[in-house]
Amino acid sequence: MSEIQNLQTYDPFADTGEEEAGQPQGYIHIRIQQRNGRKTLTTVQGLPSEYDQKKLLKAFKKEFACNGTLVQDEELGQIIQLQGDQRLKVQNFLGDNGIDKNIIKIHGF
């Protein structure tokens, strides 16, 4: 009879300890949240730390003619919230200003 050997099984759910839980893997996430009726919020998270969040928010507000705020989250850090559906505008703005569009992920609808 032949022997059955278990050749080093791989557990895809094992914690390797390489990345911190809850942190985006180098991606910039642009999400939309439905408020009430036609009102929406656009959130931007995962921006690199070399970019000043306050200056980006100020540029977004001026460029897109919308209001916005910075929200501090204990797990995700600073998140930019903008009024309205600004997902494509934010993606194009970041792409035009030196951020690779391949690391920008758009979520929603």
UniProtKB/TrEMBL annotation:
Signal sequence bounds: none
Keyword DNA damage among UniProt keywords: no
Pfam families: SUI1
Transmembrane segments: none
Alphabetized Gene3D superfamilies for the sequence: SUI1-like domain (3.30.780.10)
GO terms, molecular function: mRNA binding; translation initiation factor activity
Recorded coiled-coil stretches: none
InterPro entries: SUI1 (IPR001950), SUI1_dom_sf (IPR036877), SUI1_euk (IPR005874)
Annotated region (Disordered), positions in chain: 1-22
Organism domain of life: Eukaryota
Keywords: Initiation factor, Protein biosynthesis
SUI1 domain location: 28-98
UniProt similarity note: Belongs to the SUI1 family.
Function according to Swiss-Prot or TrEMBL: Probably involved in translation.
Name of the protein described by the UniProt record: Eukaryotic translation initiation factor 1
